[in-house]
Structures are given as structure tokens and as C-alpha cells.
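ingest -> validate -> predict -> emit
validate: passed (alphabet ok, no gaps, 307 aa)
predict: started
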Amino acid sequence: MNKPVFLAMLILGWLAGCIHLPTENSLSDEQLLRLPYVSKVDQLKRDYFVYLPRGYETQRDKQWPVILFLHGNGERGNGLDELDYVISHGPLYEAWIQKKDLPFIIISPQLHMFTMGKVPYIANRTRAKIPVRLAEGVPAYEPFFATPRVMEAGEDIKDMSAVAPLLPMGWEQVEQDLLGIVSHIQKKYRTDASRLYITGLSYGGFGTWYMASKHPDLFAAAVPVVGWGHPDLMAPIAQAKLPVWAFAGGRDTSVPKKFFYAGINKLESLGDSEVRFTIHEDMGHDAWKRIYASRDLYDWLLMHRKK
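emit:
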């Protein structure tokens, strides 16, 4: 072997040893951050959670999809020492507590208490119920709610004209806060603006329908879970052809499935080409536990980009 070829091989070998391509083991760990903001509702300082997925710090060229998650009624609070309640359910619980590798930035704010502080399941809650991330392994899932009722088809409510479109003191009260939080995250972090998704459970499901109706061009897909959408909200969603996957619990006595059909049928009749409706017939109101634990929801979200 002549000398130039030999030297070239030595240099190539040295370069190969110096280049460290990212591997599964070298990806940065996931992070859970608390970020401050001032609410437009009362001009008070509050925090919200932002989850950064595994690999965010090391994959510097990647633009990440974003999930805006709206929690249920039982997780309301002051956005400060009560913020941890929002970890209890949903995508943030799955990613942070169950350590599922979800490739999303997850935004999880906390809805103000407003007039709900005396609701028994809020007034009687304790911090002992807040899930904690374990150093090793993951905690067992809580058991599902008891479902003593038999499964039955039931009757859908076709005329919703006498039904209020939203529950009292819900996420519509903090619409401007949500828009400001999303805008801040999109500016500060490496986000893919074409893949902003919204999902929420129970009260947050109603909030998901509301935000999708008011800002259909902002989101790439919406997943309201155990919260029905009123027919009056459907026209903007259909006009934007926003993909929607709605979920209900067949044995749900809090938000019965009979209230879902009118809105979803209206959405289809107005020409929304991608509407899914899944009823977990054997489940009660906490069907969200199964729904958010399944990879199907997240894979479906990633199929969609804003046109």
C-alpha cells in the first residue's frame, strides 16, 4: 500500500471515531417544565406545564408536534401549588408518569376554580391522589370506575335546541389565555406549526369542541374525549374540514352518549370528510383512562397536518 493511501485511511478512521451520531441511548431525557404567565381573566400570575419529549435537546433540527391538553373538572386550581392535579390524567400522565415515549410537546394548563370549589369531588380531594413519577418503573393504573349498569343501545337526543352548548364556567372562560400560551410555546420552542393538536377529557372535551369551533384553522386535528359537541358549534369545524375523533363511554352517567349523536351527525352533514366516533360501550365516564393509554390516539394525530 502506498503512503498517500495509507494516510488517507488513517484520517478516515480517525474521523469516524470522532463523529458521534445520535443513538437511542444518547437521546436527551424527557423534561417536565413549569412556565409562568399572567391570566387575562384576573391578571394573576399562574403556571402551566410543558412536557418536552425524549430527544428534544439532542435532536436540534427537529420540529416537534404539539398537543394542547384540557383537563377535566376535578383538576381545576390556582395554577400554582394546585397545578400538580393536572398530571392526574391524559397525555401528560401517560408521558410523564407512565413514561411512554410520546413524540410531542405537551401543553397542560390548569382551569381556574371559578365557582366550582364546593363541588364535593373537588372540595374533598387531597394531594395524596396526585400521581408521582417513580425513579424506577411506573405505578399501576388506578382501577376503572364501577359499571353496574348493563350495556344498552339507549336513545339519542336529536333536538338539542333546548340544551346549553357548554357546561358552566368551562374552558371558554380562558380562551385568550390558551391562545397566548400556545403562541408563546410556538415561539420559544422548536414546534411544527402544521401539527398543533387539541384534546381534552370531560370538561376538557367540551373545551376541545369550543376551541376547535372558535379557532378551527389553528389546529391540525381535535380529539374530544367523554365530552359531547353541540350542533351549534359544528359549522366552523366542518368548513375548515378539521379532522375529529370523538370518544364516549357507553355506561357514562355523567356525560351520556345520547347527547353525542346530534352534533357529530351535524358535522358530517356539513361536509367534514374525516369524522370518527368511538363508543367504549363497556366503560363509564373514565373511559379516558383506556383511550389515552392506547397508542392509537397518538398515531392518529400524527397522521394529520394542517393544510
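Residues 59 and 303 are 21 Å apart (CA to CA).
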